[in-house]
Design brief:
Elements: H1 2-10, H2 13-51
């Protein structure tokens, strides 16, 4: 919490908002990447079911 306040005090409004935007974008990208991984693994398991059906 203290480092955030420190940053806001040091940087002008534009820079601090840009930093926040970058951080939120990075978070968003990691969420998309996780979702893609889940979808990919689900598709992989589905294709395994098709090729190797469990008896």
């Amino acid at each position: 919490m203290s480092w955030k306040n420190y940053r806001h005090r040091r940087e002008p409004d534009g820079n601090s908002s840009l930093t926040i935007r970058t951080i939120s974008l990075r978070k968003h990208n990691s969420t998309i990447w996780k979702m893609q991984r889940v979808i990919f693994s689900n598709a992989l398991s589905a294709s395994n079911e098709v090729f190797y059906p469990r008896h």
